[in-house]
Design goal:
Blueprint lengths: L23 H11 L4 H25 L16
Helix pairs in contact: 1-2
Length: about 80
């Protein structure tokens, strides 16, 4: 007899079904820009991008006062 894990011993999936009201035009544009195959993949990739952005901002803030980074954008203005 093969052993199967009971539901209690399996790690819980972090994926949950959601019903959302989303601007379809934004979703379509994001899907095209991301090259996502599905709307679900689009939302997942977009959320990952937001989280990556936050990690990058935190990293820059962490090293900003160390003297190893030069702000080349100071005084830079759009034409």
């Amino acid at each position: 007899m093969g052993q199967t894990k009971s539901r209690e011993s399996r790690p819980r999936a972090s994926i949950r079904r959601k019903n959302l009201n989303i601007d379809q035009a934004k979703l379509d544009r994001a899907r095209m820009l991301l090259g996502a195959a599905t709307e679900t993949e689009t939302v997942d990739q977009a959320l990952s991008a937001v989280l990556l952005r936050e990690d990058l901002i935190a990293g820059v803030r962490e090293i900003a006062g160390t003297g190893g980074v030069e702000n080349v954008f100071d005084g830079d203005r759009e034409p």
